[in-house]
Amino acid sequence: MALTWRAVVLTALGVVPVLLFPVPGTVLVWTLLVVALCALDVALAASPRRVAVERRVPGSVRLTDTTTSRLTLTNLASRRLRALVRDAWPPSAGTQVNRHPVDLPPGEAARVTTALVPTRRGERVADRVTIRSFGPLRLAARQASIPVPGRLRVLPEFASRRHLPSRLARLREMDGRAAVQVRGEGTEFDSLREYVLGDDVRSIDWRASARGRDMVVRTWRPERDRRVLVVVDTSRTSATRVGDEPRLDASIEAALLLAALAGRAGDRVELIAYDRTVRSRVAGAAGPRLMPAMADALAPLEPALLETDWPGLVGAVHERLSQRALVVLLSTLDAAAVETGLLPVVGQLTAKHQVVLAAAADPEVVALRDDRSGTAEIYDAAAAARGEIERAAVTTVLRRRGVEVVDALPDDLAPRLADTYLALKAAGRL
């Protein structure tokens, strides 16, 4: 039995006059009267366990978007249900108002809605539904917590999709649909057209020109149907906070933008998330199924406090790829991690594939490097500058071994990686 504020007020209203004008036994009598009224009120309240509860929640929602959890309550008791219903979710589900008053006659049903604005990716599991049933006097209540299953998958925000239209426009230009032709080693022959001033003389088709009156040139279109494997590192380095979020979140944004762009370009995109084992995988999805599959696979990923098994990762890549492909590693450029982990095995990847390493830099390090306002700040700036020198040295070594390196701040990582993909595609290096 739970007492309400009304019972407390009623008790106080009777006790205060008695204290001012004391009469032996009056306090006890009044208290017993209030207790009796509360017991009667509880006895007349509908049983909260005689309420059928059904929950409906969407299967998924994008991070920061709004969705709802709907509860349908049916009063199976013979008494009127006057209740307060609490729809409990974890804090990261972002519940707005989760307590709802209900007044239901016997046999009738009502629906209550709780707005959810999730603040974290992953699976969000609903807690129990608590029903507090009041008596007609609302002096006391009966309460029960009922397990009602509910699960919501919070997908990545994909804020980097704002960069997609501009990259698709560049892709259309490369593809010849905007009257711009590109040429590079390994690109595919498209057609012949008349030579115009400014064309590359290396594109002239001398045999075709000799057969006609005009000089003609070959046009080329970017390669299609190439394989792109995105590898998201979920080891301890992905837990490092860069800005306001873990490095893993910046990697996920970059992976989504690259997948959207490569999918539109006609390439086959696959994904694996790896630390010491494969945490998630997308393979065989294309067209309109690609992005939902990517978002669903990336949503539950969390950093694992483990070192990356780089030989195992290389083995997983070779298991997926039998022909030359673009392998994009979304990891870190920390000197210690790269020198002891990636460098010893990177040659096994670059020997067969075009490899790109994309890493999010820490904006706080950049701020420390530029701040020289005092003695302590100068020491911090020196430490930050030393760290950047080490990253630059590691970048140089990787590039000498055939790895394209993208080192950018978290908000710039996704568009920079997309630009690198377009450059490699235009040069025919996929």
Please tell me about this protein's structure.
It is a single chain. With 430 residues, the chain is an alpha/beta fold. It folds into 3 domains: 1-155, Immunoglobulins (Immunoglobulin-like); 160-174 and 224-427, Rossmann fold, CATH 3.40.50; 184-221, no CATH class. Helices cover 37% and strands 27% of the residues. The chain has 11 helices and 21 strands. A 6-stranded mixed beta sheet has the order 18-17-14-19-20-21, with helices on both faces. Strands 1-10-9-5-6 form a 5-stranded antiparallel beta sheet. A 3-stranded antiparallel beta sheet has the order 2-4-7, with no helix packed on it. A hairpin with a 5-residue loop joins β9 and β10 (140-146). α1 packs antiparallel against α2 (26-44) and α8 runs parallel beside α10. The longest helix has 26 residues, at 375-400. The termini are far apart.
List the SSEs and their pairings:
Blueprint: E1 2-3, H1 5-20, H2 26-44, E2 51-56, E3 60-62, E4 67-75, E5 81-87, E6 99-104, E7 109-116, E8 122-125, E9 129-134, E10 140-146, E11 151-155, H3 164-174, E12 188-194, H4 206-211, E13 216-221, E14 227-233, E15 241-242, E16 245-246, H5 247-264, E17 268-274, E18 278-282, H6 290-298, H7 310-320, E19 326-331, H8 335-350, E20 354-360, H9 363-370, H10 375-400, E21 403-408, H11 410-426
Parallel strand pairs: 3-11, 14-17, 14-19, 19-20, 20-21
Antiparallel strand pairs: 1-10, 2-4, 4-7, 5-6, 5-9, 8-11, 9-10, 12-13, 15-16, 17-18
Helix pairs in contact: 1-2, 3-5, 3-11, 5-6, 5-11, 7-8, 8-10, 9-10
